[in-house]
């Protein structure tokens, strides 16, 4: 029990990062069905946004963090929007081509990062008010920065839930996702909705990138470390299901943390993947699905 | 007296990719009439409605709606021009509530009725107790009433209906038939794809029969009795 408790903060931290990375995929992959392999590189772009603000423009760590969050969202959102508008739009219904195409875009972005910032990892300093931590039950220590990421992830979830369920464009998005033709003939501009969905989904990758600068170094391949796990979170949660994504992210985070506590990293990865395969064998539709009368 | 046609299809050809489905469709539908499109499964009835609604781009020919060429207008703009579509299979926006389904149509259409819920309940009072239910939980008949209501909110001048009574219990079929009569009485032009011959013969002003993507018969319903209609359908 105590072993589990000490791993709880690590699990929650991994879960929060996975959640931020997966939230965007929940939009572009879960809802629109587009496999965007460049999503990981959007995370990397978000992280370098914070780096540029600090190292190139010279902002202090606190201002960097607070400014990087909206700026990274806007930059990666715009990148995603351009990607959808210029390329992905012409490949709808061709998932394999989309996968290869976005994989290539990801490679280009990685190389661009190497050219601009160099291959070695860089660091973005954490604001002083996030450097401490709190201690629970004498043994469990939670860093402020990890609490901040947890809060950021949960805030993003709440904002998305509000957007999807309470706002007009959010409801239109859900309508388009449910039945594109029906939405179009109801008067909804589905092209515009696709562009918005991609903007938000990609923008969330930027937020994840900024969050990652708080817990580790930033490098050109930063996103690739998270992209597979993020896709898994979306699949386990049930495609396009916000609730499922949240639960799956934290479940995977905690599983990772507890297994890694007694096994080495490679073995831990193997065990986690085996657990996921077993889960998907039993429940291929993921944790949650949309329930309609016609499907039951 | 000559009137501007509500809908005029000129030499329309359409299909899916390489599959050519519709061949040289010429059809004029006058305002305020109910035009039934009939034919067996797979002759192109739904393709015809999908093309008129803008979900399929014709390979050749033009579509004119009240003197406006809409051949290359995207589907969401066609409804803004007063051309509404209730597709086959009574699918609704299942994850949204009935009220949200109605508001969605209201908000997406500048010309829509100012009081969408009242307008919908006026036509379909059965929806009243269901307003806050998820549309995915409605029965087929309730869903079809919701779909008709959602189309009517946009105050269309022309309504395309694809098999509105397919797979729906008989008591609701009567309600839907009455609703179609009411809608037509308001002067809304209706293009009705229907396999149920008796219903079509009761409602329609003109009957158009399709076979293998071509029009094989077009004329006023009064020209047809039940037996000759049956004979036409069986070709």
UniProtKB/TrEMBL annotation, chain A:
InterPro entries: ABC_transp_permease, ABC_UrtB_bac, BCAA_transport_permease. Its main location: membrane. The keyword Nucleotide-binding does not apply. The chain crosses the membrane at residues 12-30, 42-59, 65-83, 95-113, 147-164, 198-218, 230-255, 267-284. Keywords: Amino-acid transport, Cell membrane, Membrane, Transmembrane, Transmembrane helix, Transport. It is found in: Cell membrane. The keyword Glycosyltransferase does not apply. It is a multi-pass membrane protein. It holds the Pfam family BPD_transp_2. Belongs to the binding-protein-dependent transport system permease family. LivHM subfamily. PANTHER family: ABC TRANSPORTER PERMEASE PROTEIN, BRANCHED-CHAIN AMINO ACID TRANSPORT SYSTEM PERMEASE PROTEIN LIVH. This is Urea ABC transporter permease subunit UrtB.
UniProtKB/TrEMBL annotation, chain B:
It holds the Pfam family ABC_tran. The keyword Nucleotide-binding applies. The keyword Nucleotide-binding applies. CDD domains: ABC_TM1139_LivF_branched. Residues 7-235 form the ABC transporter domain. Signal peptide: none annotated. It comes from the Bacteria. InterPro entries: AAA+_ATPase, ABC_transporter-like_ATP-bd, BCAA_Transport_ATP-bd_LivF, P-loop_NTPase. Belongs to the ABC transporter superfamily. One of its GO terms (molecular function) is ATP binding. PROSITE patterns: ABC_TRANSPORTER_2. This is ATP-binding cassette domain-containing protein. Keywords: Amino-acid transport, ATP-binding, Nucleotide-binding, Transport. Coiled coil: none annotated.
């Amino acid at each position: 029990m105590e072993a589990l408790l000490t791993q709880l903060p690590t699990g929650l931290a991994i879960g929060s990062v996975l959640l931020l990375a997966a939230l965007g995929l929940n939009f572009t992959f879960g809802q629109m069905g587009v496999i965007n392999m460049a999503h990981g590189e959007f995370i990397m772009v978000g992280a370098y946004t914070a780096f540029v603000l600090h190292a190139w423009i010279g902002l202090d760590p606190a201002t960097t963090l607070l400014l990087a969050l909206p700026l990274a969202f806007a930059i990666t959102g715009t990148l995603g929007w351009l990607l959808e508008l210029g390329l992905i739009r012409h490949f709808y219904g061709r998932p394999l081509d989309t996968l290869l195409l976005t994989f290539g875009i990801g490679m280009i972005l990685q190389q661009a990062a190497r050219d601009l910032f160099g291959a070695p990892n860089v660091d973005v300093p954490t604001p002083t008010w996030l450097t401490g931590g709190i201690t629970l039950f004498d043994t469990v220590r939670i860093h402020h920065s990890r609490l901040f990421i947890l809060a950021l992830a949960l805030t993003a979830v709440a904002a998305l839930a509000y957007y999807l369920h309470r706002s007009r464009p959010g409801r239109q998005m859900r309508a388009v996702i449910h039945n594109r033709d029906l939405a179009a003939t109801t008067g909804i501009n589905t092209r515009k909705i696709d562009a918005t969905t991609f903007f938000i989904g990609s923008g969330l990758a930027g937020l994840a990138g900024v969050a990652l600068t708080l817990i580790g170094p930033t490098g050109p391949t930063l996103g690739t470390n998270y992209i597979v796990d993020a896709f898994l979170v979306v699949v386990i949660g049930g495609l396009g299901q916000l609730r499922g994504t949240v639960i799956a992210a934290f479940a995977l985070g905690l599983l990772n943390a507890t297994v890694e506590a007694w096994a080495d990293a490679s073995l831990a990865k193997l065990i986690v993947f085996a657990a996921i395969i077993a889960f998907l064998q039993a429940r291929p539709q993921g944790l949650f699905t949309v329930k309609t009368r016609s499907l039951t | 007296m000559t009137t501007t046609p509500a809908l005029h299809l000129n030499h329309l050809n359409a299909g899916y990719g390489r599959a050519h489905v519709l061949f040289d469709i010429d059809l004029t539908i006058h305002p305020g009439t109910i035009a039934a499109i009939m034919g067996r499964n797979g002759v192109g009835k739904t393709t015809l409605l999908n093309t008129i609604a803008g979900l399929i781009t014709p390979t050749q020919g033009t579509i004119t709606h009240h003197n406006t060429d809409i051949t290359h207008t995207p589907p969401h703009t066609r409804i803004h021009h007063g051309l509404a579509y209730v597709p086959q299979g009574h699918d609704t926006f299942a994850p949204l509530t009935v009220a949200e389904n109605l508001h969605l149509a209201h908000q997406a259409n500048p010309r829509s009725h100012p009081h969408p819920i009242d307008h919908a309940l006026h036509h379909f009072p059965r929806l009243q107790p269901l307003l806050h239910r998820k549309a995915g939980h409605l029965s087929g008949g309730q869903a079809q009433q919701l779909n008709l209501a959602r189309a009517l909110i946009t105050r269309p001048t022309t309504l395309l209906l694809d098999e509105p009574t397919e797979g729906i219990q008989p008591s609701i079929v009567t309600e839907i038939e009455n609703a179609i009569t009411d809608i037509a009485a308001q002067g809304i032009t209706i293009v009705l794809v229907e396999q149920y011959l008796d219903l079509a013969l009761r409602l329609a002003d003109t009957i158009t029969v399709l076979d293998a993507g071509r029009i094989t018969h077009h004329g006023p319903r009064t020209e047809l009795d039940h037996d000759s209609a049956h004979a036409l359908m069986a070709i």
